[in-house]
Amino acid sequence: MAMSMPTGGDDEDGAINASINTTPLVDVMLVLLIIFLITIPVVTQTVPVKLPNETNVANKTNPQNIVIAIDAEGTTYWNNAKVDQPTLLAKLKERAVEVPQPEVHIRADVNASYKYVGKVITDSQRMGIQKIAFITQPEHASAPQ
């Protein structure tokens, strides 16, 4: 059996291809980009509140869930937008008739007075919301969300 080796001439048949195939690199980078684009909006919160430290289980973040934040002064935010009490009632009444009904997730600052939290709970129940949950910070985490 014989084997032929390139002779080192200038013909293109025997030349070594020294270019790098970047297709797998581009594929991996696109997958990472998609993962970051999906996860970053879920993690980012714009209302600065200090959450109480409690043990909790991971919650399912659904786009139809309503996140109501209450800061230390008692200001109420609907999905990161400041709202007053009549607007909050109107929005809760509008969303309570949806099927499936959205959950209300309350993010209250640890220094917020309970009367503001209780008012949001009462308003949610009066407008017909069935599921209300509290978002807290795990005990071992020290940075505010």
Describe this structure in words.
With 145 residues, the protein is an alpha/beta fold. The protein has a domain at 47-145: 2-Layer Sandwich (Nucleotidyltransferase, domain 5). The protein has three helices and five strands; from the N terminus they run H-E-E-E-H-E-H-E. It has helices at 23-43, 85-96, 114-126, and strands at 66-70, 76-78, 81-83, 104-108, 132-134. A five-stranded mixed sheet has the order 3-2-1-4-5.
Spell out the blueprint of helices and strands.
Blueprint: H1 23-43, E1 66-70, E2 76-78, E3 81-83, H2 85-96, E4 104-108, H3 114-126, E5 132-134
Parallel strand pairs: 1-4, 4-5
Antiparallel strand pairs: 1-2, 2-3
List its traits.
145 residues, alpha/beta, Nucleotidyltransferase, domain 5, five-stranded mixed beta sheet
Low-confidence stretches: none
Strand content: 5-15%
Radius of gyration: 27 Å
Task: Give the spatial strand order of the biggest sheet.
Answer: 3-2-1-4-5
Helix share of residues?
25-40%
CATH level 1 class label of one domain:
Alpha Beta
Shape: elongated
Q: Can you count the beta strands?
A: 5
Q: Can you count the helices?
A: 3
Task: Provide the CATH architecture of one domain.
Answer: 2-Layer Sandwich
User: Which secondary-structure class do the elements indicate?
Assistant: alpha/beta
Please tell me the overall pLDDT: 82
H/E element sequence: HEEEHEHE
The description of the largest β-sheet is: 5 strands, mixed
